[in-house]
Amino acid sequence: MSYELLTVDTVPGYVATRNALARFGAVSRVREVGDGNLNLVFVAEADGGGLVLKQALPYVRVDPTWPITPERNGIEGRALRVHNQVAPGLVPEIYDTDDEWHVIAIEDLSGHRVWRGALNEGLRHEGVAEDLGRYVAKVAFGTSVFGLGAKGHKSALATAANPELCEITEDLVFTEPYISHEHNRILPANEADVAAYAGDPGVRVAIGAAKLAFMTHAEALIHGDLHTGSVLVRDEPHSTRAFDVEFAFYGPVGFDVGALWGNYVLAAARALVLGEDAHAAWVLAQAAETWQGFADELAALWPGRADPRVIDLESYLAKVYADAVPFAAAKAARRVIGFSPVSDIETLPEQRRERAIRAVLAAARLLLTGETRQGEPKPLFDRVGQVMAEAGR
Ligand code: SR1
Ligand code: MG
User: Which residues of 47-69 are buried (b: 16+ CB within 10 A; e: fewer)?
Assistant: First the structure.
């Protein structure tokens, strides 16, 4: 390995060597808090305030036999700078990027918590779903032809390729759940459910089309992994931050909307099998909140577009919506079939987990094969809730 991995003991010395971090002064306390699949994450307390260091491991943290490029750290740093420009206050600030040791230094958001954990506890953070819709819209506008113009978009696109992390998504989200693969972990009681879902010809056609859209629709510098574990929330004062943009690339805007919707489905499945029907309904209602935030923000930005000719807002919104529906299905289904399950489902006792998985697969099947690509999220996710309740009984 050509760089050293940081430890709680080496972080203070490391921070002292970084010019961009000089204002923080001496570091007095360090904690390692990484709990994701890929990175080391340290919270450092210094004389001048707190900061977070995120260092890329050259392998998957939860499977060290799986190599993965640490260059993703620099890609994340560059994307985070761009997202700070176009969506300030909705992402962590970035202080430093170190392409040799594959470390970024970002804002310490202690006092926030990860939204997935809060949803699992049945907590309602009002306004977060809408904030995230606004975040997706600001990125969709500010990094696309709308905000940058035709030539600006092409130059930005040329500097933001992320092929290795895109390949992970192409494999884990759009391929492995639909084939026999060693990554897939399926409870015996769910084998027939998964076989019926993944073997449905309508599901396979829709997933293939979604995969191709993911691979080819280079609309904007999207987050690329916008699940509820990539969101920090705080009530007082209200704050929402999307973090962990290492999967950022020029892709379809509907993928970020769909990632949120798919994760609302997972949270709702948990709530349903725990008998928390009101929480399930609230979570599914967040799909419409996210869409409203997205559509309102894009409409507000639209008069400032680089080229007001020909391209029409309503048609673009319809395109994003039609993309988001199958992406939501893909993002929900991968978490109950393939690599990297989520705590919403994994922490349930086995019999409830089986029912939750059935509910998620029923939702995904409806989203992929029903007449779902046009319309409004409220009636769509009401139907999703009904189908989930029936399947998860
Ligand atoms: C090997 S990385 C596994 C997953 O973790 C991230 O959160 C992405 O969703 C990725 O698919
Ligand atoms: Mg992540």
Answer: eeebbbbbbbbeebbeeeeeebe
